[in-house]
Design goal:
The protein has two helices and eight strands; from the N terminus they run H-H-E-E-E-E-E-E-E-E. The protein has helices at 12-26, 29-63, and strands at residues 67-72, 77-82, 89-92, 98-102, 106-109, 119-125, 128-134, 141-147. By secondary structure, it is of the alpha+beta class. 34% of the residues lie in helices and 31% in strands. It is elongated, with a radius of gyration of 26 Å. It starts with 11 loop residues before the first helix and ends with a strand.
Length: 148
């Protein structure tokens, strides 16, 4: 079988070169994916924590009963429960986030939605520090991000 010079196509070297370049580019994706998934996991955790605290506050006001929360550093989780009842919310803190201290790891929402004491809870993820700040009075809180 004779090959004509006018036939068009790629040589084996050209195909291997293109495949090598493609594989080199694809090899950079896993670290980018890991970094992105960590950021998303952190964002979801902080949103869930905020929603859980709002729920606890609303539950306290609607049912006219104190609702307690506590962050357990050793178990890497937090719990929320109404006074005299079983735990209604128990959530694990992701493994890449650590509880870095704070002044109100345990507190409660009064039946009017206020907190009796103000303070902070610190969460650390890599070089980022996330601070949950509870303000006294109307039971407001805010989560802020800081570079460490």
């Amino acid at each position: 079988m004779w090959i004509r010079k006018s036939q068009k196509g790629f040589t084996l070297i050209e195909v291997l070169l293109a495949l090598t370049i493609f594989l080199m580019l694809v090899s950079f994706l896993p670290p980018l994916y890991t970094s992105l998934s960590d950021k998303i996991e952190t964002k979801i955790f902080l949103q869930q924590l905020e929603e859980d605290l709002y729920y606890a506050q609303q539950y306290a006001m609607v049912n006219r009963t104190p609702v307690y929360y506590q962050v357990y550093k050793s178990m890497n989780e937090y719990r929320i429960w109404p006074f005299g009842q079983d735990v209604m919310i128990r959530r694990k803190i992701p493994a890449n986030i650590t509880v870095d201290g704070g002044t109100v790891l345990s507190n409660y929402f009064k039946s009017n939605g206020n907190v009796p004491s103000f303070g902070t809870i610190h969460f650390q993820k890599g070089k980022k520090l996330y601070v949950l700040t509870l303000h006294i009075g109307r039971g407001r809180f805010v989560i802020s991000e800081h570079d460490k």
